[in-house]
Amino acid sequence: MLLNSLGGTDRSESLAPLPAGSLRYSTPATRWFEALPIGNGRLGGMVHGAADVDRIQLSESTAWSGAPSDTDVSDTGREQLPHIRALLFAGDHAKAQQLTEEHLLGRPTSFGTNLPLPEVLIRHLATGPVQGYRRGLDLDDGIARSAYTRSGTDYATEVLASHPTGVIAYRITASTPNAVALQVDVGDAVFPLRRRIDNGDLVLSGRAVETLHSNGRDGVDLTIRIRLLPDNGTDHGTPDTSGDTLRIDGADAATLLIAVGTSWLDGSPEADAAAALDAAERQGWPQLRAAHVADVSALMGRAAIDLGRTDPTVRALPTDARRDRLAKGADDPELLALYFQYGRYLTIAGSRHDSPLPLALQGLWNDGLASSASWTNDFHLDMNTQQNYWAAEPTGLAESQEPLLRLVENLRVSGRSTASRLYGARGWVAHTVTNAWGYSAPGRGMGWGLNVTGGAWIALQHWERWEYGRDETFLRERAYPVLKEAAEFFLDYLVPEPEHGWLVTGPSDSPENWYLAPSGAECSVSMGPTADRVFVEAIFRMCEEAAAHLDVDADFHARVAAARARLAPFRIGRHGQLQEWLHDFDEAVPSHRHTSHLMALYPERQISPRTTPQLAQAARVTIDRREAAPGWEQTEWAEANFIAYYARLLDGDAALHHVRSLVAEASEANLLSYSRGGVAGAAQNIYSFDGNAGGTGGIAEMLLQSDSDEIELLPALPTAWRDGQVRGLRARGGIQVDITWSDGRLRHATLRAEAARQVRIRYADDTLALSLLPGRSCEVTPDS
Hints:
The protein is an alpha+beta fold. The protein contains 17 helices and 35 strands. Strand 8 (143-150) and strand 9 form a beta hairpin. Helix 7 (333-350) crosses helix 17, helix 9 (402-423) runs parallel beside helix 11 and helix 10 (454-469) packs antiparallel against helix 11 (472-493). The model is unreliable at 10-15 and 235-242 (pLDDT under 50).
């Protein structure tokens, strides 16, 4: 089969539109994992849609406890570092483990966490039995809806989180005049809030404090302001007998507006919340809704997907029932396509170009379980935060990365101090976790806290932004400085191991795994864990390419190239597995969920079936051994990992198996992914955003892969996806790609470039060189 180019032809423009789809249910939500998420990049809500007492549980990205601190780094770590290294090289792993715990771990005093906000309770005062109830979330416009009939009157609600105005808006209408009566209250909060009525608004204010992850005193000041606006009817606007509710009677319709302000980065909670409500009220519901729909639909419309047809009788079922069928082995390609778009919707709802903070462990929606657990609802830099943004670049949502890029740029500043004080090194470093305040010290726990490449790992997002967008100003002014200073740290931190002279990191963790030392001791710290090698190699390579492209720093370029050539190689262990550590240690927990060394396969391409087939097979053995181990710690993000791994291994059927497992076994009734209870100390299933975004990114990787040299079409197409199409995927180099296939084979692909590009297109074993011009499309078809 050969590839042909038909320049200028673009059949995809004549194809029927592909709506993103809707989540639909026949009953109200009775628990958090049934509620529907809305968000504007800062303010989020989980909408329950009940006909009696509706509930919107609020979250806000800067509602953080804690505060900045300059006492998180150990004062004794730097002097002990050479001794710990010597012990590890000498094979005294247990003693090195002991000294690491005593001298290198972080000492956070007020790290903090993102905290959940209370529920807004909307009591519908109409009486009578409810008939014909239905609710849903339309991904095309980002509106959660419910509808029902009560005592002969049809009621309908629409709930949205408006990015243009910064508020959550709740609208209820009735088919009968004067039939809307509401009472609005606010539920209990996890931190103290004072309540009052101010100019007709219900206002709650306080400080986000807690004692598990901080000192109980530090946190942002916060104000929640709620305004109830009736269409006709009576607007009480004054306290009722309880003194802290809003109520209207006899209205034709009503709009409820909710705003939140915090003091994070010198915000003015009271003034900011009031200003947002005033602006939204001036617009009025029709204009506010129209602006929201235009905003969301423009972003959602950038990409579309069709993975095949689902039987119409199945398509008509509620979403939770369809998920249950999938768990029993039934096919539902439209549900998988919906899951792909859901990950994009959640990225849009949770992270915008002007969001103050990026997506945390729970994205924007805080169920209160992570923040009350040992791990906190923060930014995990050993997989989760990276995975939160897997869907951004390849599915047309590049600007959603901006808050993450800013977080990393701020982390670079605090990371300089940690690099100098703890390691005596130049540049910057960050470890496993960070917070709203720029924490860069090691974590407080063994086995996970000393991940010295956490900062390097998250800094790869800057390079991804450059590769997809090719904005030279961004490379020069933002990406290269971040990467260069990360490389400077490793130039100082790397040391030669005595047997081969390879340059290795250490002491360091392979997050979050432990190994069995030759003595039988279970240890975590080592010299030269493979994951570190992956990220140091990546940082060095990127700095070489950036310096050459920008024609700067020739001496630095040479030093990086020399150090990169001396990095330890990948090694294959006695089981045929890719070694996780420099030496062929067995895992202390063979079923462990973390496979950080396989980042060499994805998102990096240091291992691939075409260039390093033996290492690719060793990576596959690692995956097989983990899944086969008794007690395999299946989590949502591990399933997303395996989708991407198998996509890079060019095994579409294995990737699809994990897509189905992610949706059916690691996502809930509302399709939000969760970390399974019993894993990592979780007492119950806890919502975690990474599975949703990671699943979407993994599906994109099954259909399109790219690097700086090549764009591959349908690299891991499963046999079950016989016919389909995808539009709006993005390849590196600023190239948009639409693909249509039938009977399991490429039919045609259309490419559009933002600037003139020379590219090589691959389909299976065939390649084709193309010259792309801006503003013109180019169609690729198979010859047979």
